[in-house]
Amino acid sequence: MAKEASYKDKKVITIGIVRELTGLSERQIRYYEERKLIFPERTSGGSRKYSFADIELLMEIAEKIEDGVQTYEIRQEMKKKNADATKLRNKMIQGQLNAQFGTRKR
Amino acid sequence: MAKEASYKDKKVITIGIVRELTGLSERQIRYYEERKLIFPERTSGGSRKYSFADIELLMEIAEKIEDGVQTYEIRQEMKKKNADATKLRNKMIQGQLNAQFGTRKR
DNA sequence: CAACGATGTTAGAAAACCTTACATATAATT
DNA sequence: AATTATATGTAAGGTTTTCTAACATCGTTG
C-alpha cells in the first residue's frame, strides 16, 4: 500500500537549500506552510525538511502568487485536485475488484 | 556535454540527514571525504551538501569497510572504474565520428 | 478606514555544522 | 617488536543555519 518514497518525495532538504533552489525567501516558504500549501517534515531538533516534489510545488505556488492568486484559492485548488485523484483511484480499485471477483449488483 | 543533474545527482542534503539515512557517524562521513571517496559541495557558509548518489556510494563504502577493505583500496577501485568508463565513453564517441565521417587510416 | 493578505525585518535562542586536536584500538610495514 | 598507518570517537570553541515570535509595511478588499 505505502509507495516506495523515491528521491523525488523524500524529505531531506533544509530550508536554506530550498531558498536557493526556488529563489523564494524563507519567510515566504514558511508562510506558505502556515497557509497549508506545503507540509515539510521536521528533524528531531525541529528543522524543516523538504522534498524535491515540495520544491516543484513551491515554484508552482510562486507562479500563481505572481499571477495574483491568493493562497486561500490555491489551497482550494489543491484540495479539489486531491479529492479528484482520490476518487479516480478508488474507482480504479473498484474496477480491479470487479474484474477479479465479478460485479455484484446492490 | 554536461548532463542535466537529476534529483539523484543534485547536492542538496546536509550531513545530519546523510547520517540519518546511512547510519554512519559524521566523523566517518567526513573521513571518507578526506580519503577522497566522496566529494560533497559546500554552501556559501561552508556546510557540506550531498546527493542521493553520494548516499548510495557511502553505503557501498560502508559495506566494503565492514568487509575489511581499506579506504585506499576502495579509492583505487573507484579510480579504475572511472578510467574504464572514460575509456569506453571515448571509444563510443570515436565510433560515432567514424560512422559519420568515415575512418581515416593513420 | 478597518481588516486581511503577503512579505520584510529584527531579536534571541537553539540546532546544526565546521575545524582542529587528542585519544585509542587495530592492522600493516619495516 | 617497534613503528607507522588506518579508522573512529570525543571534546572544545567558533560559525552558520534554523527556529519562533513580534512588529512594520503596503496593497487590496469589504
In short:
Chains A, B: InterPro entries: DNA-bd_dom_put_sf (IPR009061), MerR-type_HTH_dom (IPR000551), MerR_fam (IPR047057). Two copies of one chain form a homodimer. Chain A has 106 residues and is mostly helical.
What do you see in this structure?
Chains A, B: One of its GO terms (molecular function) is DNA-binding transcription factor activity. Chains A, B: This is MerR HTH family regulatory protein. Chains A, B: It comes from Mesobacillus persicus. The structure is a homodimer of 106-residue chains. Chain A is mainly α. Chain A has two domains: 68 residues, Multidrug-efflux Transporter Regulator, Chain: A, Domain 2 (Orthogonal Bundle); 37 residues. Helices cover 59% and strands 4% of the residues of chain A. The first copy, chain A, has a two-stranded antiparallel sheet. In chain A, a hairpin with a 5-residue loop joins strand 1 and strand 2. Chain A is globular and about 55 Å long. At the A-B interface, helix 1 of A face helix 1 of B. Chain A binds a DNA duplex (30 and 30 nucleotides) through helix 2.
Mean pLDDT of chain A: 92
Strand content of chain A: under 5%
Count of separate DSSP helical elements of chain A? 4
Radius of gyration of chain A: 18 Å
Major sheet summary line of chain A = 2 strands, antiparallel
- How would you describe the oligomerization state of the chains in this entry? homodimer
CATH classification, class level of the largest domain in chain A: Mainly Alpha
What is the helical fraction of chain A, as a range of percent? Answer: 55-70%
Number of domains of chain A: 2
